[in-house]
Predict the structure.
Amino acid sequence: MRVRWNDKSKKQLRKTASYIGKKFGEQARMDFLSEVRHTNALLGDNPNMGPSETFLSDLPSNFLSVVVCHHNRIVYHIVDDHIEVVAFWDTRREPKNQAQQTTESFSKD
C-alpha cells in the first residue's frame, strides 16, 4: 500500500529531524531519517503492523501507530487504497496532549 503523510505529520517529522541535526549532528539526522524511511516501507508492506492507538479511540477511524527510533511514533490509519499518516509523535511527551492535538486537527479537516 502507498503511505501518504499529511501536512501536519510532515511538519512534525521535519521539526524532529531538524532538532536531531542541531543537537546530535548531521549523521544522527541522516540515520534518523533512514530509520523513518525504513519504517515507512515496512508499513506500506504491512499496513496492520501497529497496534491500535488507544488515545484516538474516540475518532471514527481505527488509528494505529508504530514506534520509530525509540522516541517517535508514526500514527496512521488505512483509507481505502492507502495509508494516511496523521501525526508523528514524540514518545517522551504526554501522549494524551498529543492525542488531543491530533484529534483537534483531524476534526478540522
